[in-house]
Amino acid sequence: MASAMARRTIINHYSKLPFASSRCLNKHFVSPHTSIQQQDAVSFHSQVGGGAGLPSYMRGAVYREPNKPLTIEEFHIPRPKAGEVLIKNKGCGVCHSDLHVMKGEIPFSSPCVVGHEITGEVVEHGPLTDSKVIERLPVGSRVVGAFIMPCGSCSYCSQGNDDLCESFFAYNRAKGTLYDGETRLFLRGSGKPVFMYSMGGLAEYCVVPANALSVLPESLPYTESAILGCAVFTAYGAMAHAAAVRPGDSVAVIGTGGVGSSCLQIARAFGASDIIAVDVQDVKLQKAKTLGATHTINSAKEDPIGKILEITGGKGVDVAVEALGKPQTFAQCTQSVKDGGKAVMIGLAQAGSLGEVDINRLVRRKIQIIGSYGGRARQDLPKLIRLAETGIFNLELAVSRRYSFEEASKAFQDLNEGRIVGRAVVEIA
């Protein structure tokens, strides 16, 4: 209530100035039919929202309906609240999770700004943000953001399980908002709200909860480092937490796109012995060899389960990872592991998809089927940055395509058509 009164005071103040009228605030038209809440938002974003040196507006890539191109639209500069940070984006990864939303395969609030693995520069902190956050992420800091944005205070976050954050799933994944139940994105022309897929990173600026951010050292590039926030983050969560890969383990990765190919590098970093890449495209399998794969299988040409058994002396692998989200590859994953082995599922599927498993084998041979959505931002993101900084994880090899911001829709079209080997990144600034 107090903040609303303060914003109305600003409106009243500006309406009395010579250059303003009751319908025009700092050259931003406010319709007489616009609600008080929308007027507050327009005034707040355009009058006091810019901050020192910030523009009044930005561009963002908007998803409106399934199987239609993204549209580049103008927004008021988003404003962070307590515990949040405004980022000037530099790079944003091109991920299948966004594509699932854009194809209508996974329900999500629309219209929304997609994009959920970002790098950028800190330009503003929300009011009443803890001084420790400001000290850790001062204005001007180079940062990378994780797509799972932990609130830091729910029961799961309190136990260190950031990847299960209640607020993230209840608000962002369920409603497309941040954790006060509100979006930070408002269209320039109408003032209407637009939802956020994670931070809505495919835009010139975005608001991110501080717990999802880590400092990016000067030694790492903005563009390639964007993939640390999802592709590498997801792979690390699967390998470190779900599978708990140990030196000498045998690992099979089914699907070697952006996330799957990152799994290969992480498996190698953890000291896995046999690392088997499975895909249907020879070009991706050739790439997999440079990322750590010791064996490759084209499952369009040969039986992947039989081949994995052959490579492992008839036993199967210690860990199999499914990175596609398809019932067929789900079954291949569970059938590829040895007795007592772990089948880790990280690929998102079309809503309602089901996977089949041999129940008797599951029970008798102690097969473990584990779902893994991502890593733990506060614990894992700094570790991933260190892996990249030391060259243990090779960002240059992982990123194969770069697109301009204006080419964002084309990037997802290319992803949908299988034209991207590894990961692509949109360069925003």
TrEMBL record:
Going by the UniProt record, its keywords in alphabetical order are: Metal-binding, NAD, Oxidoreductase, Zinc
The protein's name is Enoyl reductase (ER) domain-containing protein
What GO molecular function terms would the record report?
metal ion binding; oxidoreductase activity
The parts of the chain that form a coiled coil are none
Q: Which cofactor does it need?
A: Zn(2+)
Species of origin reads Clitoria ternatea (Butterfly pea)
The Enoyl reductase (ER) domain sits at 65-426
Q: Which PANTHER family match?
A: GROES-LIKE ZINC-BINDING ALCOHOL DEHYDROGENASE FAMILY PROTEIN, NAD-DEPENDENT ALCOHOL DEHYDROGENASE
Regarding protein family, the annotation reads: Belongs to the zinc-containing alcohol dehydrogenase family.
SMART domains linked to this entry: PKS_ER
